[in-house]
TrEMBL record:
Domain of life from the UniProt record: Bacteria
tRNA-binding among keywords: no
Protein name: Integral membrane protein
Membrane-spanning ranges: 6-31, 52-73, 116-138, 159-182, 202-222, 234-255
UniProt keyword annotations, A-Z: Membrane, Transmembrane, Transmembrane helix
Length: 262
């Protein structure tokens, strides 16, 4: 009986950690690398202001995600700026912050736990923005992406990719969607060193919380349904992050070609 409980507990605990934390974290590491490289090339080629013009919306979403999550976890907001306008940037400094949220917490459990989620909040905020943009601008693609997540087969992938070809019939919407995806991806998914450091201080409380929740779900006999729900949510987040990786990779390659051309 006890061994059965342990097996069910592990089957609940590991998917939560893997799908909701580890998989998004690995994809964001890749996104951070690609976007930092792209931003550096943008600055070198077109100046510091180019980061705001091509990633301003993403920067606003990034900082807003930090801000709202900090408020949710009862952190004191010391100051914030969602984006620095291009004409206010110091052209002689490549280290100037393009936006920031300064906050402080007590040592109580809830605010300490919040450090993890505040640090990674842009992952979920920017993913939600991409999801909503696609829902509004490319509803067929949105529906087929959901179908692919539910049943990730070769046929459903081909069906999903064909939706982009159909979207050319309404090219202005496709162009707006693409520009939004570039802007959100370039400006929003680049987690700073401070973001990673802030998140690290909340990892232990988060693991303890997941342990407690996993034990409770196992005791209530909800392991199987929870695992299915967690897997679906994790794959949904991962699918949008993979789309961001593809966009980031193509943009990075384009900037490298432009650099070689000069």
């Amino acid at each position: 009986m006890f061994s059965h409980f342990i097996a069910a507990f592990i089957a609940t605990f590991l998917p939560i950690i893997g799908y909701l934390f580890l998989l998004p974290f690995l994809l964001v590491l890749l996104l951070t690398y690609l976007n930092r490289s792209s931003k550096q090339m943008l600055v070198n080629q077109f100046g510091l202001q180019a980061q705001v013009y091509l990633g301003g919306l993403g920067i606003i979403l990034h900082e807003t995600s930090h801000l709202l999550t900090a408020l949710l976890f009862h952190h004191k907001i010391i100051g914030f700026k969602l984006v620095v306008l291009p004409w206010h940037l110091n052209a002689n400094s490549s280290e100037q912050a393009l936006g920031y949220v300064q906050h402080a917490s007590t040592k109580r459990l809830w605010p300490t736990l919040g450090n993890l989620f505040i640090g990674i909040a842009p992952i979920f905020g920017c993913t939600a923005a991409m999801y909503l943009s696609t829902y509004l601008l490319l509803p067929t693609t949105y529906q087929r992406l959901n179908a692919f997540i539910m049943a990730p087969t070769g046929d459903s992938l081909q069906w999903l990719l064909s939706s982009f070809g159909q979207a050319f019939s309404s090219f202005p919407l496709l162009l707006i969607w693409l520009l939004l995806m570039i802007n959100i991806t370039l400006g929003g998914f680049d987690l700073s060193s401070a973001d990673f450091k802030n998140s690290a201080s909340g990892v232990l409380p988060a693991l303890l919380l997941v342990l407690v929740i996993s034990c409770l779900l196992t005791f209530l006999g909800l392991s199987r349904s929870t695992t299915s729900l967690v897997k679906r949510a994790g794959l949904l987040i991962a699918s949008w992050l993979i789309l961001s990786v593809i966009i980031s990779g193509l943009l990075n390659a384009l900037l490298r070609l432009l650099r070689l051309a000069h």
